[in-house]
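Retro notes, structure queue

What went well: the backlog is down to a handful. What didn't: a couple of records were mislabeled last round, so from now on we paste the full input next to the output in the thread. Example, using cysteine desulfurase from Cyanidiococcus yangmingshanensis:
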Amino acid sequence: MFTFNFVKGGLDPRVRKPDRRSENLAPNGIPRGSWVSCSYWDTRIRRPRNAVSRQHWFVASLRSTDDQTDLTRKHRKGGEISALDFGSFPILEEKDHEGKRIVYLDSAATSQKPMQVIEALSGFYKHDNANVHRGAHLLSQRATEAFENARVKVARFLNAEKETEIVFTRNATEAINTVAYAWGLMAGNLKTGDEIIVSVAEHHANLVPWQLIAKRTGAVLRHIPLDSVSQTLDIEAFRKMLSGKTKLVAVAYVGNVLGYVQDVKRITEIAHEVGAYVLIDACQAVPHMPVDVQDIGCEWLVASGHKMCGPTGIGVLFGKERVLKKEMAPFLGGGEMIAEVFLDHSTFADLPHKFEAGTPSIGDAVAFGAAIDYLNENLGGMKHIHTFEHQLGLYLYESLSQFREVTIYGPPWHNDLGLERVGLCAFNVRGIHPSDLATMLDLDGIAIRSGHHCAQPLHRDILKVNGSARASLYVYNSSADIDAFTGALVEAVAALGGELTIRPA
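Corresponding output:
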C-alpha cells in the first residue's frame, strides 16, 4: 500500500525545500523523484493534515509495501479497453481548471451528445422548423414527417407493437406523472384502500408522484424492502405484499444507486398474477442494453432521451394500446389532443396525440431519433453497446472494490442471485464526505456525481448514509478514463486526510 505523509515544506528536518528536481527529498530511501505536489488545495475543503497553503504542502514520504502494488492501475485481462466512440463528442475536448481534458463519469445523470445529434437538432431549426399536424404548407409537412418518423424509431427501438403506443413527453418524470394522473386519478382506477407498490430504492420521480396520488385518492403506498445482505429487492417479501388490493407496481429496471439490472419480466409476471398493472422506470436501462417491452409484458415503460445521447426536453411513455385508449383519461388539455371542441365539452384525438397537448418538443424529438440512429448504426446496436459496457463496467467495479476503505452499494459484480451490474458505482470512502471527494476530483478534471442522486429515502433510511459519490460510464469512456479516475481518487483521499489501501488477494 501507499501511505502519504504530508509535512510543511522547509520545517521538517527530513525534507529539503520542495521543488520538482529529481533529487531525493529525504534520507530514508525514497526513490528519486517520488514526491508529489499537493495540488488539490481548495479553500472550500478541509485542510489536509495541518496544511496552511497548497504551495507549502507536498508528499514527503511515499512508503510502498504489498509488493509495490500500484493503486492507480489494476491489472486488466485483455489489455486496454478503448471507447466505442470518443471523437464524435466535441464536449469531451473541453479542458479543466489546469488545461487537462475533462474525464466525464456522470452519464447516469445525463449523457453527452454526438455531432450527429447536435447537427440533427440544428438542421431541423435551419431547414424544417414549423409546427406539426397543423399546416398544409411544405415546412409543416416536413416537420410532421420528421417528428412522426422519430416516434417510429422509438417504437422499433423498444419493440413496441405499434408506434401509437409511444407518447412523447418532456422527460421520464412527466411520463410517470401522466400515468399517475391520467390512469390513477382522472380515470378513477385508484380508490380508497387500493394499494400501490414501489421499492425503497426508487428515484424520486417514481416515488413522489405516487405519494401525491395516494393522498388524493385514498390509496395506500407500500414499499418493497431490500434484502439486507445483497442490497437487492426482496422478491419473496414482494410476493407476500401482493393481494387483490394491489392495483399498481412501479419499479426501476436498473437502480441509479444500487447499479444492478432488476428482473422486471419476473416482477411483471408476479404482479399480473393478482391483476396488478406494472410501470417500469427504464431510464438507466434503455441507454445501455436491449429493452423489449413486449417481452417484459409491462403496461407502461418510461425512458429519457438525454441519458442516451439525445437532447434534453424529450421523454418517452410506452403504454399498451388497450390501456392508453380505454383506461386513461387525457392528462393535459389544449390544442393537438382534441378531436372537436364545443363550448361545454370536447372530444379527444386518437392515440398517441390524446396525451400530447400543445406544441410538442419537435426539434428534440427529431434529434432523439438521430440519437437512436447513432446508437444502432454508428455503434453497432444495443447488444454491442451492452457487451462493451459490461466489460468496462467490470473494470470500474474492480478498480474501486480493490480498496479496503471503499464501500460500493448494491450487490457484488459476481453474485449468487444471477443479477447483472451495469457501469455505475455509487460508493463512499471511509471518513470522507462524498461532496468533498467530488470537489477534489473536479480540481483534477474528473467529473462524478455526489449527493443522494434523487434517492433520499434509500440513502438515509436503508443505506444509513447522507449521500454517496457516483461514477457512471457510457460509450465514450475507456479504461484510461477509469485509470485517471482511480489515480485522482487516491490523491484526493490523501489530500482530505484519509488513505486508500489494497484489500488482500
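Agreed that this is the format going forward. Reviewer comment attached to the example: Residues 31 and 392 are 33 Å apart (CA to CA).
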